[in-house]
Amino acid sequence: MVIGKNTYQPDDIVSYFMVDSILPDNLIADMGLTGKLGGHQKNRIKPVQLRGQLSIGLIYKCPLGFEIGDSVAEYYGITKYNEAIPVELSGKMITKPSCYIKYDIDNIRGWNPFIDGEMVVVTEKLHGSTVSFGYINGVFHVMSKNYSIAEDENNSYWRAIN
Length: 162
Description:
Layout: E1 14-18, E2 21-22, H1 25-30, E3 48-50, E4 53-55, E5 57-61, H2 73-76, E6 79-80, E7 93-94, E8 124-126, E9 129-136, E10 139-144, E11 147-149, H3 156-161
Antiparallel strand pairs: 1-5, 2-6, 3-4, 7-11, 8-9, 9-10, 10-11
């Protein structure tokens, strides 16, 4: 996180608010961030570049009586952003296979990490949508971000492979 110089001292206990946290207006105002956060209501923490550095969350003073590891979400009224699933992508959610691999290479241009003959998982982030297709232990799966989707002729992902 990027923070102001001398805001905190070594050994200070702070509260950490992760990306996609939704902050209440009073907390945003107290932090001096009114109108500076993401989302339509300017209350959502998003990754940003500040002073040439990636900032992936916010820290704030820790409330009295709280210790390292305690959740401060309820105290501050913080919730997690959950994007609504568009109707054309909805379907019956099922348990994602335990061997599922989430994409983790943002840009491999000019770099070849692959070995000839090696099994490779390829995923691609398309604007506004994340989907993975694949056979796992002989069963075809359609997966989107944090869940797997049961076969459904009305689901856009399943229709794309038919």
